[in-house]
Amino acid sequence: MSFYTKMPIFQVETASGHEILPTMKEAELVYQQKIKSNIPCELYKEGIKVKEYKPETLINDIINV
Questions:
Q1: What residues pair up with 48 in beta bridges, in sequence order?
Q2: CA 42-56-38 angle, 5° bins
Q3: Domain-embedded: residue 2
Q4: Is the dihedral of CA 14, 17, 22, 25 positive or negative?
Q5: DSSP class of 60
Q6: Rounded to an integer, what distance in angstroms lies between the CA atom of residue 58 and that of residue 44?
Q7: pLDDT tens, position by position, 24-62
Q8: pLDDT of residue 61
């Protein structure tokens, strides 16, 4: 008899690529590193966006006015 366990998938995306990680803790660490480097990024759990970071720039300020 065979069985399987569905493991959650966590992903951190940037404009230049993405990283797939096995735990939320690891994904959160990568996400925080991107924020410290001022890199726009998004954190997903099972394909659903959990967090998003967009650093403030002059261009963003002009667009949002």
A1: 45
A2: 55
A3: no
A4: negative
A5: H
A6: 27
A7: 999 999 999 999 999 999 999 999 999 999 988 755 555
A8: 52
Residue numbers of the domain that contains 32: 10-63
Work out how many domains the chain is built from and give that number: 1
Q: Which DSSP string do the residues of 9-58 spell out, in sequence order?
A: -EEEEETTEEEEESSHHHHHHHHHHHHHTT--EEEEETTEEEEEE----H
Encoded tokens for 44: 């997903």
Residues 6 or more apart whose CB falls under 8 angstroms from that of 31 comprise: 12, 41, 43, 51, 53
What are the pLDDT digits (tens) for 8-24? Answer: 999 999 999 999 999 99
